[in-house]
């Protein structure tokens, strides 16, 4: 019996897969628990339409990420830290501070876990911070200037 999975099923397949299962397993478990539907001509057409829709959404998300990358490349964030003799820095700038500054000054929301360079900035000068904007395909760069 051929079925289309509506959700991930362990040792069978992922959501949207068309799989061949035994008749009893398909009828008594997958169809009964609404984990799958029969793979008829109509349901296959619906599945193809859903795949097309997902592809369009993915392309749109990637285009949005590229636009955000361009916007980020023009931004320089300024941070002030205390310094001692000889340019010695007291404190540092964390990824959380960078993300908050982006949100407050430029209304750009980025998850702090998407920052690739996950270390704190503890030196004066300019530093480039990389951010994963879309599935490791689109990487944005934020320029951070730390002065004393």
Q: Are there runs of 5+ residues with pLDDT below 50, and where?
A: none
Distance between the termini: 70 Å
Number of helices: 3
Radius of gyration: 24 Å
What structural category characterises the helix and strand content?
Answer: alpha+beta
Features:
8 strands, elongated, single chain, 36% helix, three-stranded mixed beta sheet, three-stranded antiparallel beta sheet, 148 residues, alpha+beta
Tell me what you see in this structure:
Helix content is 36%, strand content 26%. The protein has 148 residues and is of the alpha+beta class.
Concise overview:
This protein has 148 residues and is an alpha+beta fold. It is built from 3 helices and 8 strands; from the N terminus they run ββαβαβββαββ.
List the helices and strands and how they pair.
Layout: E1 2-5, E2 18-20, H1 23-31, E3 36-38, H2 41-73, E4 76-80, E5 82-83, E6 89-90, H3 95-106, E7 125-134, E8 138-147
């Amino acid at each position: 019996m051929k079925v289309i999975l509506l959700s991930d099923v362990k040792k069978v397949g992922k959501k949207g897969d068309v799989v061949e299962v035994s008749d009893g397993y398909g009828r008594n478990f997958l169809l009964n628990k609404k984990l799958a539907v029969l793979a008829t001509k109509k349901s296959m057409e619906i599945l193809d339409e859903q795949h097309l829709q997902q592809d369009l959404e993915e392309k749109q998300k990637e285009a949005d990420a590229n636009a955000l990358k361009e916007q980020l490349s023009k931004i320089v964030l300024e941070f002030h830290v205390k310094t001692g003799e000889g340019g010695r820095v007291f404190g540092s700038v964390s990824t959380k501070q960078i993300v908050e500054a982006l949100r407050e000054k430029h209304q750009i929301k980025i998850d702090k876990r998407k920052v690739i360079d996950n270390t704190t900035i503890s030196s004066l000068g300019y530093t480039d911070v990389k951010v994963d904007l879309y599935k490791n395909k689109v990487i944005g760069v934020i320029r951070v200037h730390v002065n004393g």
